[in-house]
Amino acid sequence: MTGPSPTSSPQGPHYTLTNEWGFANERLALLGAAYDPDSIALARRLGVGAGWRCLEAGAGGGSFARWLCDAALPGGRVFAVDADPRHLTDLPRHGGEVAQLDLVTDELPVGAFDFVHTRFVLLHIAQRDIVLQRLGRALAPGGILLLEEGDGLGVLDEMPGAFGEVWRAFARSTEIAGANQAWARDLPAHLEALGLIDVRAEADVPMFRGGSPMARMWNLTWEQVHETSATLDISPEIIAAAQAELADERRWFYAPPTVRAWGRAL
Predict the structure, then answer these.
(1) What is the pLDDT of residues 107-165, one digit of tens each?
(2) What distance in Å separates the CA atoms of residue 130 and residue 9, rounded to the nearest whole number?
(3) Is the dihedral of CA 177, 133, 196, 100 positive or negative?
């Protein structure tokens, strides 16, 4: 990826990581815990609140969709879609709606939402341009589209140790499956091409300590992509060494930058 192994998970040929894996729920929960605070802070800055009609596209583990329910309801709407919504079964109890929907092949409601959000999803879908057009059409007049994606931005080659070796193999494996590790750096231009206005963007490089929840999340990611990595000449010994590094509380790591871009529909 870039981006941490998505929070969402369109299945089948369209997405490079799936929700059906045995530890996917734990991995997605750790991902949400790591990235939700920044996502929520930005959504608040953008004004998301009571009465807003919200679409969470590729909702994955559902943590951000649950926050949207707290923020927008009552009076608003939270519509969470994923090709495999198995981790979203509790959302209706929070007042949200859930739909099983493939972002590549299925249509979204047009002109229906004040806020459309997706995180670590589009770069993993080869047909991302189709999906981006659909997300743009889903905006009501004045609605905001917020995209959060990972991007190598030059750091992948600098990652040291076994962790870096496995990360580079992971990036290659996702690109073979259709991901684009350099796509997110052009997010502002993509939003402007949709005709959105007031486009803004920012980026940060996440850093984390070994033994932390984020380290555990990456550890689970290596487990999930193990078979793909093995076909790329990454030995089980190197994967095991990377996992040992991630468990070492004396070590610090950095992940690829997260790019966040947003714009408003006319």
Answers:
(1) 999 999 999 999 999 998 999 999 999 999 999 999 999 999 999 887 777 888 999 99
(2) 16
(3) negative
Structure tokens that stand for 221 in this block: 């990611």
135-168 residues labelled b (16+ CB within 10 A) or e (exposed): bbbbbbeebbbbbbbbbbbebbeebeebbbbbbb
Tokens at 98, concatenated: 């859930």
Round to whole Å and give the CA distance between 78 and 95. 8
DSSP class of residue 172?
A: H
Q: Which amino acid is at 154?
A: G
Q: Are the beta carbons of 169 and 232 closer than 8 angstroms? A: yes
Q: One-letter amino acid identity for 204?
A: D
SS3 234: coil
3-class state of residue 164 by DSSP? helix
Contacts of 188 (CB under 8 A, 6+ apart): 199, 200, 201, 261, 263
